[in-house]
Amino acid sequence: MKRRTMMIIGLIVVAMLIIVMGFFIVRNKTESASESVTIHQNLQEDITLLKDIQYQVTDQNNCYLDVAYKDDGKKKPLLIFVHGGSWSSGSKEDMNSLLYTFSALGYTTASVNYDLLNMLNALHGECISITEEEACVSAAADFLAGHAEDYQIDTNKVVLIGHSSGGQLAGHLSEQIADHPENYPFQLKGAVLLAPASDLRYYVYNNIQIDGLELPLVEASFIFDGVYGTDVFTEINKVDVLYNITQNLPPVLILHGSDDTSVPISLSENLCNALEEKGVTAELTVIPGATHSLLEDETVFSEINRFLNQYILNSKGE
After folding, report:
1. Cα–Cα distance between 201 and 242 in angstroms, integer?
2. Which residues contact 75 (CB under 8 A, 6 or more apart)?
3. What would be the CATH architecture of the domain defined by 42-313?
4. Could you report the per-residue pLDDT of 30-51, keeping only the tens digit for each?
5. 3-class SS at 279?
6. What pTM did the predictor assign?
């Protein structure tokens, strides 16, 4: 009888231990999933900021970048931020909160200016194209990899992060890098696309804003090769993110505001589905109540941080 009583007491104790351990496990998972990120609007004291570094010379003379990193002698993953602005406006300073926040979290961060479309130049047949803008971003990435020792960069862990039209540039460049890694002096480990203009076919007859003017792509075909009269559908196939997906892409995170009226959320839904159909690891997070401007949203920063922790910090360079 005494032995039986002791066995019952022992079983009760074990059961209580299991319940307590389960509580802590569940609680830790919940805390980890909801971990927030402090958004920094200003540079932190222990971060080195190098501004307006010219990474290549062009006629437009707009190819400058900013770099921020903690000068501790350790190699760090590189995050390259590509601003939006309908390919015709915007600035690297638009990404400052991302630059400051993630440099404080232990990354080397870079925000890139690139040559922009100009309506007046297009009228004279002198406008640059989306392809040339993408080439600028690619040149910036090459430049950073070439100065890996200076900026304490781990070239085996590079991530492209773009917003809006910058999301199109970052997305398509990611596809090019994934299919031809031998042409790039770094290894792309992920891409984060914030409300990306990922399906340019949507804008063929729907207005897109360029240089402050609202017009459809059939009237703005110069964005593809710098001149009017371009066959829009042919050119779209060359630079569109949705129609150039490759199974070689690294993990992709797409973030989109539920109340975005500039880039329809359906474009991101279609992109995520298409990526998954190709076997690419892809996630779409819809930010409730967020509009097209996502760069100050706490959920965006937390989601990017979660993605980086999962796929970049825990990955091994090859």
Report:
1. 10
2. 148, 152, 153, 154
3. 3-Layer(aba) Sandwich (3.40)
4. 233 436 888 888 888 899 999 9
5. coil
6. 0.85
